[in-house]
Design goal:
Blueprint (H helix, E strand, L loop, with lengths): L8 H7 L7 H17 L14 H26 L2
């Protein structure tokens, strides 16, 4: 893996972006998301939900994710000797 030197943080940040993705790129991204889902799957409730604002929707999602994280921690702590 080559080592690159950058003069500014912005230059290094730009190097992370792929502006011309090909088929292999999308396959790798799909594999990454699949792997992440296998490591920590989260089940969101099924259905369509209406919110008055994006903030309300974000609060609902955050509440679900925190509840899932707490459940996961309690299960993992229960497995410890």
């Amino acid at each position: 893996m080559p080592i690159y030197k950058y003069k500014t943080f912005e230059e290094a940040e730009r190097a992370l972006w792929n502006f011309h993705p090909d088929e292999a790129y999308f396959i790798k991204v799909a594999e990454l998301w699949d792997f992440a889902n296998k490591l920590s799957p989260i089940n969101y409730p099924k259905g369509i939900f209406k919110y008055r604002s994006i903030e309300e929707a974000n609060k609902h999602r955050e509440k679900l994710e925190i509840a899932y994280a707490k459940k996961l921690m309690s299960v993992r702590n229960a497995c410890l000797p």
